[in-house]
Design a protein that fits this description.
Isopropylmalate Dehydrogenase, 12 helices, 41% helix, globular
Length: 358
C-alpha cells in the first residue's frame, strides 16, 4: 500500500527518536512491499523560532492531508516561561483540536524483561497490561479562563456528546481486551464529573458484556501504584488522563517506553511517545526511542490497517529487550547499555530477521 506520513520531530530529543522510528518504517515498507512517503513539518518551539507560531498553518494543512502523523516532542527551557503569549504546548493543543483528535490511547505494558526497571516491586507490576483512554479536546485545558494579578480561573466543561464519544472508544477497546472499564472522575466534588458519570453509564448499557466501575481520580491514582495489574481500560477526562498516564508510565520503568495514539472519527491519527522533549539529554544519543517506535507500530495498526506489520515491530522490540539491550534510562548494571541509534538499528535488524525467517 501507499501512505503519506507527516513527521513532526519538534524539540529536544524529538528529532532523534523520530529518526529511529522512520528507520523502522522504512524497513517495514521494504520488507512488506509498501510505499511510505515522508514529509517533515515544524511544530512547537522550533516552529516559534522559524515562523513565530507553534503551529504554522502549513503544518496543520499538511497534517490534514496525511494518512498519519508521527510526532516527537515539544518544549524546552528556551520557551519555558508559562506566562509567555506564545508557547510550544499551544502547538500540541492546537493540532489536536485542528485535526479533531479527541481520543488519546495510551497503552501501558510492562515487559517481563523490565520488571526490575520499575521502582515498584516486581510482584506488583508483573503482568500489567492496561490502556488509558484520555479525552483530548475538552475539559479544563480548553474551557474559558481568565488570569489576573489577584485571581485567576480555568473552566472544566464537558458536553454529553463529548463524553459519549470518548466513552464509546473505551468500551469498543475493552471488547477486544478483558472487557473491564474503569471510568475515572471526581463526581463527589465536580458537576462536570457527575455529568461524565451519567453519560458513561448510558453508553455502558450498549455493552452488556463489559463490566463498568466508577472510580474517583484520587482512588485511581492510589490503585495504579498498589494494584496496577487489576486495570484493563481506564477512561477519563483530559486533565485527569494527563496526570494518570504520567504516573502509569513509571510502572514500565521509564517514560521512554510508552507510545500513544490520538484519534478522531476517521482512520488518520497522530502518534507520539508519552515522554517530553528531555532537553537535558538532547543531542547526546542517549534517548530511548522505543516509545516512538512503538507509536509507529500503533500508526501501522490503527491508521494504515497493517496489523501484521505492527505486530512485527512490537515483536522486534521485545526480541531486542530479551537479548539484554537497554538505553540508559532502563539499563541495569548487567545490561548491555546502548545508544539511541543503536537501539533503532537493532530493532530494524530484528524486523528484517523476523521477516526472513517466515
Amino acid at each position: 500500500m501507499s501512505a503519506n506520513i507527516v513527521l513532526l520531530p519538534g524539540d529536544g530529543i524529538g528529532p532523534e527518536v523520530v529518526a529511529q522510528a522512520v528507520k523502522v518504517l522504512h524497513m517495514v515498507a521494504d520488507a512488506y512491499g509498501h510505499d511510505f512517503k515522508f514529509s517533515e513539518e515544524p511544530i512547537g518551539g522550533v516552529a516559534i523560532d522559524w515562523t513565530g507560531s507553534p503551529l504554522p498553518e502549513e503544518t496543520l494543512s499538511a497534517c490534514r492531508d496525511a494518512d498519519a502523523v508521527l510526532l516527537g516532542a515539544v518544549g524546552g527551557p528556551k520557551w519555558s516561561d508559562p506566562s509567555a503569549a506564545v508557547r510550544p504546548e499551544q502547538g500540541l493543543l492546537g493540532i489536536r483540536e485542528g485535526l479533531g483528535l479527541y481520543a488519546n490511547l495510551r497503552p501501558v505494558r510492562v515487559y517481563d524483561e523490565l520488571v526490575d526497571s520499575s521502582s515498584l516491586k516486581p510482584e506488583t507490576i508483573f503482568g500489567v497490561d492496561l490502556l488509558v483512554v484520555r479525552e483530548l479536546t475538552g475539559g479544563i485545558y480548553f474551557g474559558e479562563r481568565q488570569e489576573g494579578e489577584q485571581s485567576a480561573y480555568d473552566t472544566m466543561i464537558y458536553t454529553e456528546a463529548e463524553v459519549q464519544r470518548i466513552a464509546r472508544v473505551a468500551f469498543e477497546a475493552a471488547m477486544n481486551r478483558r472487557k473491564v472499564v474503569a471510568s475515572v472522575d471526581k463526581a463527589n466534588v465536580l458537576a462536570s464529573s457527575r455529568l461524565w458519570r451519567r453519560v458513561v453509564e448510558k453508553v455502558a448499557a450498549d455493552y452488556p458484556e463489559v463490566t463498568l466501575e466508577h472510580m474517583l481520580v484520587d482512588s485511581a491514582a492510589m490503585k495504579l501504584i498498589r494494584y496496577p495489574a487489576e486495570f484493563d481500560v481506564i477512561v477519563t477526562a483530559n486533565m485527569f488522563g494527563d496526570i494518570l498516564t504520567d504516573e502509569a508510565s513509571m510502572l514500565s520503568g521509564s517514560l521512554g517506553m510508552l507510545p500513544s495514539a490520538s484519534l478522531g472519527d476517521g482512520r488518520a491519527g497522530m502518534y507520539e511517545p508519552v515522554h517530553g522533549s528531555a532537553p537535558d539529554i538532547a543531542g547526546k544519543n542517549l534517548a530511548n526511542p522505543i516509545g516512538t517506535i512503538a507509536s509507529a507500530a500503533m500508526l501501522l495498526r490503527s491508521s494504515l490497517d497493517l496489523k501484521e506489520e505492527a505486530a512485527a515491530v512490537e515483536a522486534a522490540i521485545e526480541a531486542v529487550l530479551s537479548s539484554g539491550y537497554r538505553t540508559a534510562d532502563i539499563a541495569g548494571p548487567t545490561d548491555k547499555k546502548i545508544s539511541t541509534e543503536e537501539m533503532g538499528e537493532l530493532i530494524v535488524s530484528a524486523i528484517e530477521g523476523g521477516k526472513n525467517a517466515q
